[in-house]
Amino acid sequence: xxxAPPPGEAIEVARGVLWLRFALPFQLNHVNAYAVRDGDGWVxxxxxxxxxxxVAAWEAALAGALExxxxxxxxxxHMHPDHIGLAGWLCxxxxxxxxxxxxxxxxxxxxxxxxxxxxxxxxEHYYRAAGWSDAQIDKWRAEYGGFGKGVxxxxxxxxxxxxxxxxxxxxxxxxxxxxxxxxPEHICLWRRSDDIFIxxxxxxxxxxxNVSVWxxxxxxxxxxxxxxxxxxxxxxxxxxxxxxPSHGEPFYGAHARLDALKRGHEVALKRLDRTLRQRxxxxxxxxxVFGRTVGDGVLGMATGEAQAHLNYLERRGRAMRxxxxxxxxWWSAVEQDEETT
Length: 341
Hints:
By secondary structure, this protein is an alpha/beta fold. It contains ten helices and 15 strands. The chain has helices at 52-63, 81-84, 87-94, 102-113, 121-130, 134-143, 222-236, 254-275, 286-290, 299-315; strands spanning 11-14, 17-23, 30-38, 41-45, 70-75, 98-100, 159-160, 166-169, 172-179, 186-191, 196-200, 242-245, 251-252, 319-323, 329-333. Strands 1-2-3-4-5-6-7 form a seven-stranded mixed sheet. Strands 8-9-10-11-12-13 form a six-stranded mixed sheet. Strands 14-15 form a two-stranded antiparallel sheet. Helix 7 (222-236) runs antiparallel to helix 8. Pfam families: Lactamase_B. GO terms for molecular function: hydrolase activity.
């Protein structure tokens, strides 16, 4: 695959499909977006984070690579800020309607309504149960409500996309494929005629998408949802599909990558089984889940993902927790009969 396009420019990676890239101010320093030719205009998929640099890059792309043509629709794969950050701005700028799944849109609107400094008590209980210190909880409280900082106000209405919907773009049928685990109802788009698959964060070429439990639903099983989604995609997509991901470069080899993603979690779960032979907190599970120590800079995401692996084991009768007098959960393995192991 050719080098990634510079901000504000685009590369045609498939018939009528342009690849754009926008900078992110994080360790993961970029996000991809795509523009699919739609008659005299374009359907845009994802937008990047709301930053001055991203706005400038979009202005350059609209005038240059997109040839000043209309944006007929904006599709956002899911509600994370690097994907919807400029959705409201782009819809207002171009007049395009916003298309999303219901859970992604509603969840985004809910998170946008959270006010800075209004950290819920339930969140404190959740992170204390995971083993966070008072200083770490205080830092979380001080930074709470940051979702809206990277997201322009969303349109007050949207058009719903659901699994197996078929939408037409420039005379081609694109099938909506929904996955979950990384986010609640993540949209992918599949042009079956030539097996172009706009994957969002459901299939990434080199890294695994974060799969986390959050304080709003502490008993959730997103890893179970994620593993089911990997199985679904493995059965649905042909090996020859050309995958257009949100991070990294477009690639072939969907089956091998899906297998590797699933295997990575299975290995982490086996390591976690061994860790839980001794009573452990969520934060003690980091080396098993990630194979390394974790710094405070990614403490929230690491906690969420470790919790997801523990909840997965608990749901399947392989782990249990007990809460001590300080509100901290201590996890241990559940002995399995030979017939069930």
